Predict the structure.
Amino acid sequence: MIIALSLILAFQLVGEVLSRALDLPLPGPVVGLCLLVAACVLRPALADRLRPTAQGLLANLSLFFVPAGVGVVAHLPTLRDHGIGLAVAIMASTLLAIAAGALAFQAVARRTGSVDPSALKGEADD
Amino acid sequence: MTDPALIWSYLAQGPLLWLTATLAAYVVGDALSRAARRQSWANPVLIAVILLAVLLGATGTDYATYFQGAQFVHFMLGPATVCLALPLYDNLPRVRRAAWPMLAGLVAGSVVAVVSALLIARGFGITGPVLASLAPKSTTAPVAIGIAERIGGQPTLTAALVLLTGIFGAIVVTPLLNALRVRDWRARGFAVGVAAHGIGTARAFQVNQTAGAFSGIGMGLNAVLTAVIAPWVVGWLG
């Protein structure tokens, strides 16, 4: 697990350095993500080695947002001035964006024949 | 026996107390979410944040003190983001086949997220730095803050708006896409990743691995596209 964690941190580190050195629009961890995908394609054994640790971290991805979420509460006075406008804008635009993204994806998937039967949600799932 | 006030002042100085409290609040949030059979309104982040906010208020602790302990949890966001490479790698054949649908979903979701938010906010008389802070709210926090700084927004306000967007998106995605009868896990995951970044992705992983993988991709691609279109849309509507 320590080896896996060291490797994951190393990919993040290289990602951070590249992101800053090349002034990329992506943050370091996302650059690290791309590098790790490329590394796994070149050496599939790497994916097997990292998978248990990665799955453990991703299973609790929600946890890592909690400290920043508490920060929202600390900034509530800033939000209060434009509270209703910002709340309506966030709620309506998020609903619209999810719907637009999913419907556009689905429409083009049907048109280009890239429907994937194994990725369909069963009627009973929720 | 030592004076309880001395014990408290000791605990209030170190990271142990608030690190423990953060993990405990999440354990409670996650247990409640499970007890509610992962119904989307029982969002574990939201429950944990409310518990901790009440605790901070009750003990008169400020956010800076809290964050000294919580920063260790916060730090793990980076390595967890890198780990999204694994489900992406595992789904690579699926991803290759879905290039065109992803492009369509990305452009539609990303443009609608920025333009609709700014139009609505402007309708409420919001302009200037607050409007600029709102523009990148669907992207992952570090990118959103970078974008906000570049277009004249307030980084701390952006961070708060990003979090609120993520929590709201994670809560509404399941009922919304059920109502729209979107059954494709790839489309469901991808759309919530584009509109509600990592918190949406965390929700997608709770429900389905394929949805989680596509959500991670949607989040990454939207970070790039929003960095390109946000300055342009703010210039147009600001």
